[in-house]
Amino acid sequence: MRTSRLRTVPSLRWAGWAALAAGAVLCVAGWYGVSGERYAERQLPYLASCTIPGAALIVAGAVLLARGGQAVAAARVEELYGLLVQPGPGDEEAPGQDVSAPLAVSGRLLMVPGGTLYHRADCPLVAGKAEAVPVDSEPVASGELGPCPICEPAEETD
Predict the structure, then answer these.
(1) What is the layout of strands, in order, in the sheet containing 109-111?
(2) Does the predicted TM-score (pTM) go above 0.85?
(3) Assuming Cys at both sites, which of 86, 126, 137, 151 could form a disulfide with 120, CB separation 3.0 to 4.6 Å?
(4) 151, 117 contact by CB (below 8 A)
């Protein structure tokens, strides 16, 4: 996956540099031709055949160079994503496992002082944190604390 994507990047960069160089040469040739002519009607062919295509090649070269840098970053992101979603040795799902079920099932509610959410005791966000304290019913009832979207605690459990 990585090698096929990254092989196109040097060709984009070389094409970008070649387009920039050709555009610069055409612009110089157009300027030289225009500077040698006194009348505007004799300058137009140089503008049409050299300067305008030269400017277009410079823009195209700049786009190719910018796109080449993005291709490297995109290839790296794809590689990292592939490593992230690659299943590990113990990641096989059981056939009857419900993926929409909450991660935590404990009935005890905890919160972190200064936090805005309340969690089940076995929620991965507060599990093992010494600063987590039990939740009073007042902050939950008043709306100061909201339910954790990970463990989805119910307000009735306490």
Answers:
(1) 133-134, 109-111, 117-120, 146-147
(2) no
(3) 151
(4) no
